[in-house]
Every structure is written in C-alpha cells, then in structure tokens.
Amino acid sequence: MKINSEDCKILDNIKMSEDGYVITLKTVKFKDKFSPGNFLQLRCSEENTVLRRPFSILEETDGHIKLYFKVVGRGTRRLSNRKSGETVNIIAPLGNSFTVLAKKRVLLIGGGCGISPLLNLSFFLSKKQSIVDALFGFRNEQDYPKMIVENRKRELNNLWITLDETNKKEYNEGTTIDYLKKINIDMYDAFYCCGPVKMMEKLSDILKGKWAQVSLEARMGCGIGICYGCSIKTTTGSRRVCSDGPVFNLNEVIWDEF
Amino acid sequence: MNFDYKTELKKIATLNSPIIISSGTFGTSGAYLDLIKNQNIGAVVTKTITLEAKSGNPQPRIFEGKNFIVNSIGLENNGVYDFVINFDKNYKNIPFPIIVSISGNDESEYVKIIKKINELNSPVAVELNLSCPNVDSEGLASAMNLKSFGKTVFNCSQVSKFPIITKLSPFQCINTMYAETAEKNGTTAISLINTVPAMVIDTENMSPFLGNTVGGMSGPAIKPIALKMVHEIYKSVTVPIIGMGGISNYRDALDFLMVGATAVSIGTMNLVDPELPNKILKNIDNFLTKKNIHDFDELKKRFQKNL
Question: What's the total number of domains in chain A?
C-alpha cells in the first residue's frame, strides 16, 4: 500500500477512561489497508501544534478507523476536544507490521495505550487460528478503558487485567511484570508487547530468548523516515522507529538510551 | 497554473519551481516519494553528509513548542563514502534536481568530502552546512571565525566540480559580513537561515529536555527573524539567495520572495505536510492574478517600492 494523505471526517470522539479517548474517523482511501502494527500521523490541530502525532490503529472496519489515545500534551488535548463532523488530516498507512503467526499459542502484553495495536493484532491472530491470551496493565480503575477491552473479549482466550492499585477481585493488584511471574510463559510460542518503555525493558529481560515482538512508542518528527527524530539503538545499529519499525524484535532493542 | 515558475539559480540550474526542500527534511524512501512525486518542487537538498558516519544525538531529539520545534538530531548519517557508493541506488528515482548538503569539522574535512562528492555526476550543487548547531562546538567556532569561514568557502569553490551554496546560521546573518565574504570567495548562491541555536528545559525535573542539551529552533516562529536577515543580505550581495525559516504557507513564501529571495525552501513544515509545495504554488497563482503581477521580479519591485 502506498502512503497517502486524506481529510477524514470525525464520526465520534468518546471518553473511555480518565484521560483516554476513542476517536472514530471515516476513511475512503484506507479501507482494508492497515496491517496490524501500522500507524498513522494525524494533524491534531492546524493552529496549536506544529508536528503531526503518531497513533496506532485500534481497529479499522468498513472504512471506520478507531484510535485509542490518551491526553498527554497539547496535541492530544486538542484532539480530545475535536467534535464529530469536523475533519482531521491523516497520513497513512505507516511503519512495518507484526508478524501474524498462524495456529500458535500467543500472549499479548500491553500497558496503557499500548493495548491499542495489540487488540488490533488479536483480530488478525484469531483469523489465523492462533490462540490469544492477553495481559493488560493500567494504573487504576479510572485508567482502565473497560469498554474497549470488553468489546474485544471474544477474540481472547484468557484476559488478565492488572491495576497498580485495586481492591476489586476481578482485577489483579500489581503490574503486568508482577503478574507475568505467575504465568507459565513456556507454554507460549510467541509474545507481542506494547507499552511504556520501562515495562518493555523489564519484559526484554524476562522474555530473553523467546520469540517476541514489540511495537515501540516514540516521539516522532515526520513519521515517514525523513528526519531521524525517532532513531533508537538496536543490536543491528541505529534504526528509525517510524520507518524501520514501529515493530521490532524485543531482543534487538537497546534500552539504555531510550 | 497561470504563471511560469521557472527559477534561474545562476549557474546551478534553472528550476521548475522556486520551492526547494531543505536539508534534513527530505527523504529517499519509496513511501515518501509516493507522497511528493506530483509536487512541483524546484530542487531537494539531501540530509547533511559528513566525512565519517555519525550516529546522532541521544533521545529525545525533538521538542515541540506552540509554533516552533527544537531539534538535536546530530547529523545522523552513514558518511560520505557510503553516500557516494549508494547514491545511484537511493537517488535514481528522485524526480527533482539534487543539492548535496555537507558538513565538516574543519576546513580540510570539507575539501575531503567535496573530492568524494566530485565522483558523482547528477547533483546540481553542493550546500555547505557551515552552521549546524548540532555538531560539536568546534565546528561552529571555526565557522564563526570570518577568516576561516572565507577560506572554507574558497577551498570548496576551488575543489568542487559543482556550484557551491553557502548556508548561513542566523548568527552569521547578524550583519552582512559573512554573506559578503562567501560571495567574494566564490559561492554561487547563499541560503539562509539555518536553525537558531536554542535550548529547552524540563522545568519540573530541573533538567535539559533534549538528550543533547542544546539544539536548533525552526518552524513558523522564526520566520520574522529569517525575513529580516534575507532583507538585509539581499542589499549587500549579488548572488541568488535561497530564503528559508518557518515557511508554512503561500504568504510566507511570497514574503521571502519580496524581500529578495530568488527561491524559497521549506523545512520543518515539509515534515508535517509533504504536499505543501503545490498548495503554496496554487495560492501564489491566485495572489499574482488578483494583484495583476506577472512574475516575481515585478513582485519584488512592488515591495521594494514600498520600503
């Protein structure tokens, strides 16, 4: 798929957690064009921001693109205020994609907004008859976008939610890293991860030697491989998250300089 | 388009359009080329090439303010040998004239790089990035010494088989001395301004925001500064000026052309909207028609009359 730009109408923009939103965009050009792991660059506002912001795809069906984002700065705050009927410009589809394994037992490990590309991936994995378990972590109940995850439960064999603080039985208190110690990771053929850098760094230790892919979040300039603003160190040299990634083998990322 | 946008950059080339894509904001990936292949771009400037490979600066490399960014990429590139070996592979599908941007730590490095670039045939010019704020201070210090600056431009002009464009830092545009020195030493054109040396603090954590502590500021906020510098330098040199600094729409482009630029260059905003060149030209078309102006010379004259 060639990358392209499109003015997309906002169909809705719904608050899902304390500072999380799901925005739905109407696309003609990018219907059925996203591979799991791809992302897009969106112009949150033409007045208050300069650069576009990268967002991974939560879902694309029938020309409706859903993005799950959190308000973390000026751009995402502006995006959270955008109303249905308005248009936003996107450049897509960008980046590489996850390797979708068939007929395997896999574990998705996600934190915060990192669940977005993983939930998208789960759909493709299920289609290829892989058995998908998911371990997702959030700060607390207010931070957990329950509706998004519940909506996709049918694709998941097991779903474990960890919250840093909770006293409810349906959740597990602690982090995903804590909970991972309770799971027999040897029963999985593959791992797909996305979340905060510190969490990914710890995962790379725990999953050493395993087949594991990570989708990285990065501060980007262009998102299309021009500016080298998002370069990271890997065991095979400097790589751009936007155009060489965002999906990398978990073991090839050098985390020290992140 | 109602107008002929052919732009003559002295012996460098006659460009199809006055819009150039600045160094560091043009890429050679196929995906990106799909986006820009139909744009009416006059020339593109490569990412700056150094003698040896550079791995660039630590993260974070980009900060965004309200209408500016500060970057400290650190000239990440594979060095001139790799550049020359892979030039045909990487640049054969680029449908625009190519200007090669280079940077050295001292005078002799510039000459070494140029000798290597001389092995190529297709570039139309070499741009001396004598003013990148993101290399070590020695590079900038040497470029801020007028004598050494002049010598570098002279040596490069002598050795290069391609015409030389000298790119100036805003620090070198405080007065017109550097521009005049570049002209005297054989530069074919001057481009200005490079990013403005700048710094951002993470106040809450009481630490520098950028991995490299300091960087270069660009984007719409620097336009008035750049405009003033082009305006001053236009009066003191006869070589063509490529004006840049925060161009984000047709008005910005027209402003640079009015104050004396022969061509304009889009940098930061090319990262945001690779389809900007055609949008700008379309609007320039409307503007010139509305004002009954026939070419950019006339536009310049109309402005200069109002000074």
Answer: 2
Residues found in chain A: 258
Asked whether residue A257 is domain-assigned, the answer is no
Domain holding B121, by residue range, is 7-56+74-196+218-305
What pLDDT, on the 0 to 100 scale, is given for residue B2? 73
Q: Do A243 and B29 touch (CB under 8 A)?
A: yes
Residue B140: pLDDT band with limits 50, 70, 90: low
pLDDT at B107 over 50: yes
Chain A residues in contact with B34 (beta carbon < 8 A):
2-4
Residue A100 domain flag: no
Q: Residue A232 and residue B59: Cβ atoms within 8 Å?
A: yes
> How many CB atoms lie under 10 A from the CB of residue B108?
12
Which of A54, A69, A94 terminates a domain? The answer is A94
Indicate the DSSP class of residue B184.
H
Beta strands in chain A (DSSP E): 4-15, 20-26, 39-42, 53-56, 59-61, 64-70, 87-94, 105-111, 131-138, 158-163, 172-173, 190-194, 212-215, 231-234, 237-240, 247-249
pLDDT of residue B142: 61
**C-alpha closest to that of B3 among B198, B306, B282:** B282
**What's the sign of the alpha-carbon dihedral A46, A47, A50, A56?**
negative
Provide the pLDDT for residue B135. Answer: 54
Question: Helix axis angle, B276-291 relative to B250-259, nearest 10°?
Answer: 60
Cα B197 versus chain centre, distance: 15
Residue B149 within any structural domain of the chain: yes
Residue ranges of chain A with pLDDT lower than 50? none
The boundaries of the domain holding residue A194 are: 105-252
Q: Which residues of A touch B22 (CB under 8 A)?
A: none
A38: in domain = yes
Q: What is the four-CA torsion angle of B152, B157, B160, B162, rounded to 10 degrees?
A: 130
Same domain? A78 vs A130: no
Q: What CATH number does residue B41 fall under?
A: 3.20.20.70
Establish if B275 belongs to a structural domain.
yes
Distance from CA of B63 to the nearest CA of A (A): 9
Instruction: Report the pLDDT averaged over residues B81-85.
Output: 97
pLDDT score of B138: 46
- Regarding whether A184 and A130 lie in a shared domain, the answer is yes
First to last CA, chain A: 30
Closest CA to A46 of A93, A5, A79: A79
